[in-house]
Amino acid sequence: MTLIGVVLLEVLVAFEQIAVATAMPTAAKELDGLAIYPVVFAVPLATAVLAMVIAGPWADAIGPRVVVMTGVGLFVGGLLIAGSAQSMTMLIIGRSVQSVGGGFDSVALYVLIAMAFPETLRPKIFMSISAAWVAPSLFGPPLAGYLATNVSWRWVFWIGASLAIPALVLLLPAMRRLPDVVREQEPAVRVRRRLVAAGAAALGSVALSVAADRPMLPAVVLAIGGLVLLVVSVPKLVPPGTIRGQRGMPSIIATRALLGAAFLGTDIYLPLMLTRQHGMGATEAGVVLTVGALSWSLGAWIAGRRSTYADQRRLARTGLVLLTIGISVALSAAWPTTPSWVLYGAWLVGGGGIGLAYSPLTVLLMGMSAPDEQGRNASSLQTAEMLTTSVLLAVSAIVFGGLTPHSHVAAFVSGLVLAILAALLGVVVSHRLEPVTPARAAKEAYVVAGDQ
C-alpha cells in the first residue's frame, strides 16, 4: 500500500507538470492573460526551488511525515485555487502554491523511502518512481487537451486535487510506523544563508525562463543576469565539490543534473524537428516521445532488477553512454534527407539510457547519505537537476530563436549539440561515483538479497 501511495503521488506531481503545458494556452486565453503567459511557468519554477531547499533540512530535523502531509495539503490547495481561478493572477498564485507542495513532497518522499524500506528494496522502489513519469508523459498531454477542448481546462487541476488525498491516505500507515525524529536544528544563520541563496537561484531561473521568450538583446541581458545569480547561489545549495564533479556524493548530484538536462534538452525538440524538417503531422511526430517514454520504462525496469551498489554505478555509466549515442544519432534528423525512422531508433536508445541511469543515481545518493543528511542531499539532487535543466533549456531556446530565421538545420543542430555536451560531461563525471571513504566502500561489499 505504501508503494502504491508513493507512486500515485509521484504520478500526480508528474501529471500536473506535464499536462498543464497543454491546457495553459486555453486557460490564458479565457482569463485574458496571454501577455503574461511565461510568468505562469516561471513563478512556479521559482517557488518549487525554494520549496525543495526548505524541505530537505526540515525532513532531516523532524522526519518526512509532517513535510509530506504539508506538501499534499499545499498541492491540493494550489490545484483547487488554480482550477477555480477567475484571473491570471489567481491562476499564478494557485500554480505557485501547488509547486511548493510538489517541491515538499518530491524531497520528503525520498526520505520516506529511505526510512521505510531497507536498502535491499530501494532499487525497485526508486525504479517505480522513475517509471511513474512514463504514464503522465504518454497520456497527460492528450487527456489535458481533451479536457481543455471538450470539458474545461479547470478539470486538469481538479483531477489532480481529487486523487492526491487518496494517495496520502495510502501513505499514512507507513508514516505512522516511522520512528519519531528529533534532531538538532541548523543554526539560524546557516538557514538564512541557504534561503537567500535559494531566492537568488529562483530569481535566476525565472530570468532564464523569461529570457527564452524575448527578442535577442533583452534575452541575452536577462540570460546573463540569470546565469550570474545561479553561478553565485548554486554552490551554496549543493555539497562542496558538486560543480567540479568531485568523487562521491558531489559527482552523483552533478551526474544526475547533467543527465536530466541532456534528456529534456533533446526531448523538447524532437516532435518539432519531425514536423518542420520531415513534414509530419503533430500526432505522428508525437510518437517519438512515446517511443522514448516506453524505452525509459524498460530501462528503469532493468535497473530495478540490479541490486548491488556496483551495479548501480555501472547502470548509470551505461545509461549516460546510451543517451549520448541516442542524442548524437538524433542530430542527423535535423537534415530533411535523413529518414525519419532514424530519429525513432535514436530515441529508443536515448530513452533506454535515461531509464537505466536515473533511478540508480537516486539509490546511490540515498545509500551514501547519513540518516540526518538524507533530506538535504535529496534536496540538492533535485534542485541541481531542475536548475541545470533550466539553464540548458534557456540557453538553447535563445540560440535556437536566433538561428531559426536563418537556418532551421543550424537551429536544431545547435539545440542538440548543447544536449550532447551535457551528456558527454555526464559520462565523464559518472566515472567518479565511487564512495570516498574506505568505510563506505566496505559497507557496499554486501550483496543485496535476490542478486544471487
From TrEMBL:
Highest taxon, organism lineage: Bacteria
Major facilitator superfamily (MFS) profile domain residues: 2-434
Any Gene Ontology CC annotation: plasma membrane
4Fe-4S in keyword set: no
Subcellular location: Cell membrane
Membrane topology, from the record: Multi-pass membrane protein
InterPro entries in alphabetical order: MFS, MFS_dom, MFS_trans_sf
Residue ranges crossing the lipid bilayer per the database entry: 33-54, 66-85, 97-117, 155-174, 195-212, 218-238, 250-270, 282-303, 315-335, 341-365, 386-403, 409-430
Pfam families: MFS_1 (PF07690)
GO molecular function, one term: transmembrane transporter activity
Sorted UniProt keywords: Membrane, Transmembrane, Transmembrane helix
Name of the protein: MFS transporter
Organism: Flexivirga endophytica
